[in-house]
Amino acid sequence: MRFSKASSAPVALIFSLLLLTPSWARERGPRVEVVCPAAPISVVVGKSNVLVYELHVTNFDSVPLTLQRMELYADHQNSGALMTLEGEKLAAAMTKVGAAMMMTSGMNAAAHDNRTIDPGGRNAIFLWLPLPLDQRVPTTVRNRLVFSVQPAGANSPSETTLEDFQVPVSREEVPTLSPPFHGGIWVAGDGPMNSANHRRSIFAIDGHIYSPERFAIDWVKVGPNGDSRHDGSTKNENWWGWGEPVLAVADGEITEVVDQFPDNVPKVLPPVTLDNIGGNHIILKIAPNRFVTYAHLQKGSIKVRNGQHVHRGDVLALLGNSGNTTGAHLHLQVTDQNSVLESQGVPFLFEQFTYLGPGADYPEKQVSEPWINSIPPGDGVVKFEAGK
Questions:
Q1: For tag attachment on the chain, is the N or C end more exposed, with fewer CB atoms within 10 Å?
Q2: What angle do CA 52, 283, 378 make, to 5 degrees?
Q3: Cα gap 265→248, rounded to integer Å
Q4: What is the CATH number assigned to the segment(s) 176-384?
C-alpha cells in the first residue's frame, strides 16, 4: 500500500504537466482589451460602399504599447487584406480617449503619436473601409493588430500580435429619406467622413459610451452668392438658411419635442450642457429602432407635438440657431434609440441629389454629378430638387 501511494503522485504530476504543456506553448499575445461599441455597418457614399465601425483598445500592460499595423480581412477567407493601415494613416485613424482626445484627432495626429497606448489608457480606432459597389459586403470583419512593446530592461522592442479579433457586420436595413428641405443648395457640414468631428464624437453618460453623431450632418444653406451668409454674419437673418422650413424625411411619429431655448447671436456660443446641446429639437420615429433628430431649430417655430403622426414632406419647424451652434444650420442625425445623445448613430440614404463637389472648391470648381441612393460626403455641396 505504501508503494502504491508513493507511485501515484509522480504519475499525477506527469499527467498534469502534459495537460498544461499546450497552454504554455501558446504565445500570450498583447495584454489588451478590444471592444467594438457598435457593429460595423455599410452605407453607400457615391461610388463606394463604406463599412464603418470603431474599435476601442485598452492597454492592460505595465508598459506602453504601440499599434504598428492593422489588417482587415473579410470573413474567414485566406485572400489578401481588404485594408492595411500603418504609419501616418493608422495614426490619423486613432485618438487617445480622454481629455486630450480632441487635440490628438485627425490632422493633429502628426504632433501626437496616437498609435501609442499608455499603460491603463484607451485609444479609439476609427475604421472607414470603402468597398466597390459590386463587391459583396462581408458577414464578418477579421481584425489583425500588430503591436510593438519594449518591456523594462529589454534592449529593443518586440512585436506581439492579436491575430484574429472578429466582429459581425450589421445586416440592418439603411433607411432612405426624403430631403429635409424644399430643395436648394446645401453643404453637408461635418458630414460622413472618417476625420469629421461628428464621426469622432464619443459621449460618456451614466456609465455608458455613445456615438450618436457617427453619420450626422450639419446642413448649411448656400445662397446665390456662393456663401452661407449675405450682408455680414452678425444677425441670424444674414444666414441663407435662417427660417428655412424643415420637413419630415419619412412618415413617422413625433417622440420628443423641445422648444424652450433662445436662438444664439451668430458667432457667440453660450455655455453648453447635456440638456441644451441640441437646442430646440424634434425626434421623429420612422421605424422600430430608427429615430431622426432635428436639432438647433428656431425658438417658437415647432409645429408638431409629442405623439403626433406626420407624413413625409410635412413642415415640422423652421431652421434656427439654438443650442451648441454659432450659425444657423440644421443638425440631422439618425440613431437607434429615442435620444439625442444616449444612442448610437446609424446611416441613412437619400434617394437622389446632385453632388456639386467639395465645399472647399465651391463654386469655383463645381461638378454636377447625379447621386442615387447615397449619403452625401462630409463637407460636400449638394443640390436637392424641390419635391424630391
A1: N
A2: 35
A3: 27
A4: 2.70.70.10
Is pTM beyond 0.85? Reply is: yes
Q: How far apart, in whole angstroms, are the C-alpha atoms of residue 57 and residue 155?
A: 26
Give the Å distances, CA to CA, from 41 to 26, 128, 247, 340: 34, 10, 26, 20
Residue matched to cell numbers 518586440: 158
Q: What is the DSSP letter of 75?
A: T
Q: Where in the chain is the domain with CATH 2.60.40?
A: 32-168
Q: What is the pLDDT of residues 323-337, one digit of tens each?
A: 999 999 999 999 999
Q: Tell me the residue type at 376.
A: P
Q: What is the DSSP string of 251-314?
A: SEEEEEEE--PPPPPTT-PPP--TTTTT-EEEEEEEETTEEEEEEEEPTT-----TT-EE-TT-
> Could you give the CA distance from residue 281 to residue 290 in angstroms, rounded to a whole number?
16
For domain 32-168, say whether CATH 2.60.40 is its number. yes
Give the chain's count of helices (H) and strands (E): 3, 25
Which H or E element spans position 7? helix 2-25
